Amino acid sequence: MGNKNMNSQQISGQLVQLKEKLAQENRLMLKDISLGFSTGDEIHPQDDFFLLSNKGYQNFKVSKILIFRNEKNELLAIQFTYKQYQNLEQDKECMIVKGNILGHQQIKNMSQTEIELKDDQFITQIIVYVEYVIDKIIINFNYGNEVYYGSRQTSKQEMFTFIAPQGFHFNCFSGSTSSHFQGLCVLKADVCTIKKYNVDPKSNFIKLITSNKSIFRSLIPFLTVKEMSVMMRAYKVFAEILSNEVLFIDEIGRRGLFSGNQNLIKYYEKLIKQQNLASEVRNNLRSYYDNIKNYVQNPHGENKFQGFEFYDDHGRAEQKDSYIENLNGLVHFKFSYFKSTLVWKRNLNDIFTINEIENIINSSLAIVFGIEIADSNYGGSLTAEVKILDKEQNILFVQTKNFPTIQRGFKFYNIAGYFKSQNLNQSNPYQIIFSISGQDSRFWAGHFGPRLRSITCRLIPVQTQQEISLFLNSFKSDQ
User: Fold this and answer.
1) Tally: H helices and E strands in the chain
2) DSSP letters spanning 453-475
3) Of 252, 259, 398, 439, which is the most buried if we count CB atoms within 10 A?
């Protein structure tokens, strides 16, 4: 395929292009570690990779840390300065690169603390305490000493700890700000080797792939969706090589159906447009892409409550726009103190074709349902329920999932899956009722409950034993 002759400079250039594309889409680049929560209202995404990428960021280390705090001594922002410490050109001074301000951007009236690192001093461990944003940070170095900043610490905070493997250090940081809480909500970093080297370690990894394709093909069935997504996004050559393998497309296609992974869907769209793909590969891609289709229209609430019914404890309720929130272009439903229920009700013949319904009845297709939810940082609970009824309104299938607590970052969950062969003696399915109920746990006024987006109803193939096993196992634990 011509990739064996690629040099490290070409590979580095591809990596730069890939990460620049992510930045243009207002998404932070892939990093080896991530600390904090995605609050759903992130602004000012900053990534130091783009300041270092054309200089060989693996040759740099953090040489200075600048901490920004307010009058309450609360951590609001952080800035790293990088210094080239290896692969220095003869008779040239080492380069110094000042990174972006990560977190709150209005630093004029903030107190500043500067930490200078020695040439042989590396960041090897980071600990943060998070309630809504990162309130406190502890940074450890390879000699065992540490620094910590931020005084606010409560019982509701969660602690995140990352330790670099032996011989590695944290480098090339990125982060974003919560527009509501005005602080650093997510801090990410790459992991780089400490010892000196003359080649890009990622290029060595790519050489390993190209010379051991059969081994990597055999490993694919054991990789998770996240692992395969990481491989594809971080190593473009990996994606190019294996995207032409029918096995790879089959494996990742089926996993993608259950994951709710938007990056996989975007990758599919890109692959389908490639004219150099073999027809068999293209057909497989199109087949799986069609199955990824979401049959729920208006799944985020961009068109308010169009397509949904809305209830409270007294029955059908008024559809108030206050239940729909727009955070920097990301629209979703948001529940309040009083319990309310969003209902998506459809007859099968209103959303599926005659052929699709026949394949559901003859057990060639299953119907799967999922939601993407997050806590609004104030606490709350949520319940999702799927019912399948026949034409006489008899219940053929019901499955419920309760969320007494919800994590703060958005996460996709499989809620239910209907597979006709599990109920061969029952009448045929006719109607779907998908209900999501939620409420917050703190304030009677306002909307501080769970956030709900990406309400999904999909059809997936269940023709082979492998597909059936994947379908059944997908609802035993969270993705």
Assistant:
1) 12, 23
2) EEEEEEEEE--SHHHHHHHHHTT
3) 252
> CB burial class (10 A; 0-12, 13-18, 19+) of residue 86?
middle
Half-sphere exposure of residue 172, counting CA atoms within 13 Å on the CB side?
25
Structure tokens at 259: 């994951």
pTM of the model: 0.57
In whole angstroms, what is the distance from residue 101 CA to residue 78 CA?
A: 6
pLDDT tens digits for 207-235? 555 565 666 666 666 666 666 666 655 55
Query: 453-476, pLDDT tens digit by residue?
Result: 889 998 888 877 767 776 776 665
Q: Does domain 11-193 have CATH number 2.100.10.30?
A: yes
Buried b (16+ CB within 10 A) or exposed e, 24-57: eeeebbbbbbbbbbbbbbbebbbbbbbbbbeebb
β-sheet bridge partners, residue 193? 168
- What count of other Cβ atoms lies within 10 Å of the Cβ of residue 155? 5
For the domain covering 309-473, report its CATH number. 2.60.120.260
Angle at CA 94, nearest 5°, toward 92 and 98?
140
> Strands 123-130 and 111-116, how do they pair?
unpaired
Q: Do domains 11-193 and 309-473 have the same CATH topology?
A: no
Residue 350's φ and ψ, nearest 5 degrees, are: -85, -20
